[in-house]
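FORM 7B: Structural annotation worksheet

SECTION A. Query
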Amino acid sequence: MIDSSDRVRPVSSRAFDRTRVFHLRGVLSGLLLALFLAVSPATFLSTPAEGSPLEPSPVQEEAERYLSRYLMQYHFRQVAVDDSLSSEVLSRYLDELDRTRSYFLSSDVRSFREKFGRSMDDEFLSGKADAGFAIYNRFLSQARKKMRYMISLFEKDAFDFTLRESIELNREEAPWPESDDELHDLWRKEAKYQLLNLRHSGEEDEEEPRKVLVKRYKNRLSLLEQQNAEDAFRAYTMALTTSFDPHTRYFSPGDFEDFQIDISRSLEGIGAKLQSENEYTVINEVIPGGPAFRSDLLKKGDRITGVGQGKQGEIVDIVGWRTTDVVRLIRGKKGSTVRLKILPVSQGNKGPSKIISIVRDEVRLEEQTAKKEVILSGGRKIGVISIPAFYLDFEGQTKNKPDYKSTSRDVKKILAELRKEGVEGIVLDLRNNGGGALDEAVKLTGLFISDGPVVQIRNSQGGKIVLKDEDPELVYKGPLAVLVNRYSASASEILAAAIQDYGRGVVIGGRTFGKGTVQSIMKIRRPFNFIYKKDDLGQLKLTVAKFYRISGESTQHMGVRPDIVFPSLIDSEVVGEDNYTSSLPWDVISPARYSHSSWLTGADVEDLRQRFVERTRIDSAYASYVRDLNVLNGFRKKEVVPLFEPEFKAEMDRIENFEAQWNKEDQPDLLLTESAAVVIDMADLSQNRLPGAESAPWQAEKK
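SECTION B. Predicted structure
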């Protein structure tokens, strides 16, 4: 697994205090979304022969007992351990194992619900995992049957492409098949779709597509035959912990070791963090400053289906692989090339696939830092500050080094440079910023406001602290816009919300991610472990608190809604906290005490919004962008694909042609252009009425 947490502070369970977390000024926020399904070879148990059911080990059952206690005692959400939890865990487990409803029969599901629908909560309390293993054993049996059936179809070439039939791609809400015949028909259509996709993908495979698919499914079958108790326990505990919330999960000792290795090596490879979703390896985060970030070829949500070494190496199919093994295949010597076969998220992860090449390198820390540019809008200068992440050199700060790097320090320097260049307004670009050091979000907000609260943090017991900007210096007091999109998360949301709540500037773009929770890692310890047992029981990452705006509204689930909405190519039905069924709800607490700025009133924001609407109404580039976006959304929402070959090919050609047009390098950044125009509008708004109009928008230099 590659977890996308920016930084997580381990906390010992023995010393853990539910309120103590709120006094840690170094509490860090980030986009904690990755599903931890990887496994280290060191954790493998002996693989049983096919037909031998997998069984939990005594250590796993003991870990399960402690897991239940920790979840009930420390998790932010106080979940009732009763039959409703059993039903929730079972449904989640079935969805995770068989999201496409193409492994289990309806009779299997009925049997599971009768046997385990009211007993999983009892097993949870007693430390048993029998239900989880029983279901996983049935899944393995069905999955192996499916792989063999698919192989036989490709070997026989048993397809008629002249039939006018179709396949339903989104089967998450579909009923499970009633019979083996119905199941086999689903498998046949899936095999046909895979073959058509490969035949019309635009790739120049040396091998005939059927042979490629035979090899692919034989590889998947081999992986299934190597499954062991660790895999079953991981899958079951994932369903259990994510029933509390999507960011809570259990790490076995081997898993946590891999997690730590990933953090220490996060500056190597291609600079992307991965997660496992069903059979696919998915890009969970593109690290700013890394090779993937610099190439702009990978996006969050892209699915990797194959990996090749060098410019000519064979593309190895990795669908169904453990994430750890995929990472090992992608990593390599600095300067070498890796080729990735992907299903782009921009087209809804539907075909055709494409192959991209990335040269392995280290993440360049200097490219993670804030950067500036000056753009002209109507002949007037606007400064743009792009912030890919909230970073802080903790060691340099601790040692009081004069040149240590931090977001707020760098942006303060940039503001001084932009002042000399005579810009009339500032755009803060937080698009794709997944978070980072929370203190830096607070300090950065402080550059644009006088002292005051920035964010509230609350635990499950109602304990609350308010993080404040305590520096009265106001570096910049002129027109300000904050750009956000669906990938702006955590610390980014805190800054955008504070600017909005103070009325200090306008937020432009799309609704943010909605990640408003705080996680901590706790080591599972036995009482008096030093006396009688030494087995490590693993670690638990769990949600312990929530963020709230100074207005009292949560940033969780709902995110920050922009003042001026700009349509986005990011699919909000796929990306965002509200797409996780167990995400904590949006709620409201009492507001912090703060003085609302009179820089922008509600009427001013409405005025700016109307000017934006009028301007874009006659903008041909904006109209073309919206038309293309509607076409793209049509591709994404298409849930049924024809398997009649001429129609299938025509549809793939339409998608490819659209992708080529959409991804042209000379495409303008319309959101940035429009944001600059909004900032000019702000500068023109009733200057005699707006504070600071009687003087320059810059804080006077201190003598």
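SECTION C. Observations
Confidence is low (pLDDT under 50) at residues 1-49, 260-267, 690-695, 699-703. The chain is about 35% helix and 15% strand.

SECTION D. Sign-off
Analyst initials: ____
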